[in-house]
Structures are given as C-alpha cells and as structure tokens.
Amino acid sequence: MLTLAPDEILLDQRAASKDEAIALLASRLEAAALVEPGYLAGMQAREAQHATYLGNGIAIPHGTTETRHLVRQTGVRVAQFPQGVEWDDGQKAYLVIAIAAKSDEHLGILRQLTRVLGDEAATERLRTTRDVTEIIRVLSGEGDPLVTGATGRTDGQRELAALAHFPALSLDELLLGAGARAKSLGWLDTQALATLLGAAPLHLGQGVWLARTAAGQAGWLLATPAQPLVTHGHEVNALLLLCANGRGHEAELGRLVELTGAGRLGELARHGLTLLQGEAAPAASQSDGHRATFTIVNPHGLHARPGAMLVKVAKEYEAEIRVANLDGSGEEVNAKSLMKVIGLGVKCGHRLAFRAEGADAGAALEGLGEAIAAGLGEGAGA
C-alpha cells in the first residue's frame, strides 16, 4: 500500500524542463535519505533509455537497475506542476512521482498508481488542487468520491487475483488451489482456509461456482482448471473465491448478480475478473482470435522500460491485442496502453496471455513472443 505524508508532496511547482523537474525530486529523495548521491544520474539514464511518461499527465521517473544499490529505503516523492512540464513527443506532465525502490517493490507502487490514476477526472483534480490531503487520499486509494464514483468502490478496498489453468482433477482440488493461493497472498490465515475447505462451493450456473469465507483482506480470486471437470453432473469451468472483509466486495457481488440474471456467467471463464469490474467484454467475432502465452524473463518484471517496449511492439500491428497476467488479476487489458500494461503488476516468471484479432493477428503474436524472449530491450534474463 502506498503511504504518503504531507511533507512528501510539493504543490504548485514550476520547471522549465523535465530534467529540472527530475533534479528537483531527486534532491528531495536524497534529502530524505532514501537514496545516496548519484541516484539522479540513474534517473536521467532511465529517461535516456525510455521516457517514463505514463499518460493522463503523469510521469514516474526512477533509476535504472544499475543504480538500485544507491537506494537506501523504498519511497516516493510527488511534485505537482499546474502549468505542466514538457516530457517527450509533446506530452505534458502535471503530476510527477519519483520512485526509489530497492527491489521489485516498485511494481506494487506502479500498479497502485496506474489503478488510481486511470481516472481522467481524478488526474485533473490532482493537477489543480491546493489541498495536500486530497492528493494523499487519491494516491493512497482511500474512499474519496474523486476516485470511487457512485458505487463507493475503490481498488484499495479489495484485491483481485487469478489462478489460471490449475491442474485440478476435481472441484475440491480447484478449491484447495484457490485457497492456497489466497493464503499465499496474505488474504487468509490458516483458520480461515480450514473454514473455506470445509464448505461446499455453490453452483451459480453455466459451469461457474462460488466459494466464500471471511478473511483478513477483501478480495476476489478466479480459478480455472487446466482440463474440463464435472461434479454432481455440472461442469466446472471456473471457481470464484470471495474473501469477505467489510463491504469492499459489494460492487462486484452486485455485478455477479447482474451477470447471473443476464445469463452471462459463462463469460467469466473466458474474460476473467474484467466482467466483475463492470467493464464490457471484448466484442465477439466469428473466431476466438489468435492466442498465445509467454513468460516474462526480465528479472525486475515489466517496469517502465520493458513495458514501453512491449507496447511499442504491439502498436506495430493493426490487430486488436489484449493481454492478461495469468499470475495476477487475470483481467484482460489493451496491450497498446502503457498505463494498462504496467497496471498488470507483472514480475519475472509471470505468464502473459495474449489474444489478438485482425488480419495480422498471427504476426503480432509472433512478434510479441520474439520481443519477450529477447528481454524487451533489456536482453534475455538481463
């Protein structure tokens, strides 16, 4: 969870260039003893490799892996530039978030930021507000109307995860795998896991089953079997595990009821938790498109540079390309959006499932596979 204090945020700043903006924030990181002298050079080197502009007026400068040893403690510093700072290719940043991370902790920070800042209305308020506490509420994902909207839901209230193609031979084994995954994520303790395994899942229809337990962390986990299963005469295409804590799950529960009433539950196994988040499923076509799954070999996952390279490769093709992190939430996102791709929170060893539709769909997946195997600009296994 990203936590901020008022003295970590600079309001109403001005900078003549992105170099000046980065230098300002680097000096704040150093003054707070988060980094050692020399980290600024690493931030500048990262920009030279690839600009760290995310979109929606947000930039996230950070150091290279070679300067990670200069980080004493993981942290961020935030600067608001109401007049904007020219970044690259005509892009203007209004909120600049400098990141210092000792290891892969920055992926969690990036994921949280991209989820919170994906709302254009929210980023506009962040650009113009004079209230530091408002920026803290939004960046921390707390229950603020600016982020939550009419549903009262925030990504800070519950988490999402997926267990795709689990080699289960029965519904009980699929439930065991889902429970073990939730426990490894810190959602459940041993007692809650035992309670979960002691209750039979409920068949909602169309091969979708629901299991529920009280938990220390609210979350939804979607588990799918590697091979078709049948139990009590019903197919098992997907198991939804609801870890309940407070009211953080209510929006998705309401959406689940809507899908049940509309006869669309079966789409969950195909489109994942995207449907529970209220997002429309990708448009249907005569074919199911081309599909391929690749494993990320970059030691530090998809941070800004390799993420940008993946998006660059995807944009070279006309095909519509969507991607899901099978070891994350499992939701499909637009592979041509840097903000969406980084928001998947991809670490080394995670599997990315691509689906492409269009005349050059096959070539697109082949090109993406080659780029991923080559390390997305960082060298295979670099």
UniProtKB/TrEMBL annotation:
PROSITE patterns xrefs: PTS_EIIA_TYPE_2 (PS51094), PTS_EIIA_TYPE_2_HIS (PS00372), PTS_HPR_DOM (PS51350), PTS_HPR_HIS (PS00369), PTS_HPR_SER (PS00589)
What is the protein named?
A: Multiphosphoryl transfer protein
Main subcellular location of this protein, as a coarse class: cytoplasm
What PANTHER family would the database entry show? Answer: MANNITOL PERMEASE IIC COMPONENT, MULTIPHOSPHORYL TRANSFER PROTEIN
Look up the domain of life of the source: Bacteria
Q: Name one GO molecular function term.
A: protein-phosphocysteine-sugar phosphotransferase activity
Supply the source organism for this entry.
Aeromonas schubertii
Q: The organism's lineage?
A: Bacteria, Pseudomonadati, Pseudomonadota, Gammaproteobacteria, Aeromonadales
Q: Is Transport set as a keyword in this record?
A: yes
Q: Which SUPFAM superfamilies match?
A: HPr-like, Phoshotransferase/anion transport protein
Which part of the chain is the HPr domain? Answer: 289-379
Q: Which GO terms describe its biological process?
A: phosphoenolpyruvate-dependent sugar phosphotransferase system
GO CC annotation terms, alphabetical: cytoplasm; plasma membrane
User: Keywords assigned by UniProt?
Assistant: Cytoplasm, Kinase, Phosphoprotein, Phosphotransferase system, Sugar transport, Transferase, Transport
